[in-house]
Amino acid sequence: MTYRTLGASVLTGAAAAVVARLAYRALNRFPPGGEKAWSRVNHRGEPVTLLEGPAAVAGAIAASALGAAALSAAGGRLPGPAQPERTVPDRLPIALCVAGLGGGAFGMLDDLKGSGKRRGLRGHLGALRDGEVTTGTVKLAGLAATGAVGAALLRHEGGSRADYAVNAGLIAGGANLLNLFDLRPGRAIKVGALSGALISSASAVAGRPAHGVAAVAAPVGAALAVLPEDLGERAMLGDAGANSLGAMLGAADAATLPRPARIGLLTAIIVLTGLSEKVSFTKVIARTPALNWLDMLGRRAPASRPPST
User: Fold this and answer.
1) Residue 296 lies in a domain
2) What is the CA radius of gyration of the chain?
């Protein structure tokens, strides 16, 4: 990786963080629709705001848009070694913006209009079978559409239909999966940051380190910027933030990883999503010392009553 590319990625992440912090401050001062619309109760029964999510989305998308402009000015190519399997599409920053916007918009719909009576894939699909269209069902359809558009932007010459389907699944599935971790303070952001590190590492192993770091800089930078609010239990990502950041990380996967890694990752996403319908991630994490240590890092001590979900 060249120093120029590393520097550009650091600046992208920093820009995402700055915009996210400014957006969070502005949204708290002038909350759209009033403060009550964004107020929720967390696992302790204490009030938190969902405005962290839109702020993180704003930071990630703004930085990705700047990346798209920089790519255009540079002639549309990220510097990096030749890639025998495929080249990273020039429209990666645009795909990141689309993934972030789609995940954020449909997630916000569920945040503000969802009733919470139907949860999980089983709940929403069951409601649809009974003739009820929930906001969760609309969101799932919207995330699928977001994945389809994002994958189309990332489609390269000679890419197969299978590649396209896998990439679409990574974007939509990544958006949904990260949201499943947004049940305790900081958890979804920690998972997102670790995912970004894994994407960068896997991309480096595949011979394209510049692309991996550049792809995750915006979503990870924005997420880390709001981590103090999340850990402090003053705010949470909500569906808008988690779906958006998850979709962007899915797009980064789709754009930078070789085919076997993408297929393996999509398989893991499907398995974890299915398990979430029957297994409590919170209980599994609490019973696993290493995971529990990471989950509690930076958090307040747990409530006296054990979590029910």
Assistant:
1) no
2) 19
Specify whether the CB–CB gap between 174 and 249 falls below 8 A: yes
Helix H or strand E segment including 129: helix 120-129
Tally the domains of the chain.
Answer: 1
Check: CB of residue 67 under 8 Å from CB of residue 204: no
Question: Are 206 and 19 in contact, with CB atoms under 8 Å apart?
Answer: no
Q: How large a percentage of the chain has pLDDT more than 70?
A: 81
pLDDT at 28 over 80: yes
Residue 150 covered by a domain: yes
Contact 103, 247 (CB under 8 A): yes
The answer to whether 193 touches 223, Cβ cutoff 8 Å, is yes
Tell me which residue has tokens 């999980």.
120
Is-contact 249 63, C-beta < 8 A?
Answer: no
The length of the chain is 309
109 CB burial (10 A radius; 0-12, 13-18, 19+): middle
Q: By the 8 A CB rule, do 239 and 35 touch?
A: no
- Does residue 307 surpass a pLDDT of 70? no
Inform me whether the pLDDT recorded for 1 exceeds 50.
Answer: no
- Residue range of the domain that includes 41: 3-277
Q: Is residue 180 part of a domain?
A: yes
Asked if 208 and 2 touch (Cβ cutoff 8 Å), the reply is no
The answer to the question of residue 304 being in a domain is no
pLDDT value of position 63: 94
Q: What is the pLDDT of residues 69-97, one digit of tens each?
A: 655 555 445 444 434 344 455 688 899 99
**Distance set, CA 251 to CA 89, 143, 191, 228 (Å):** 11, 12, 16, 26
Residue 147 DSSP SS3: helix
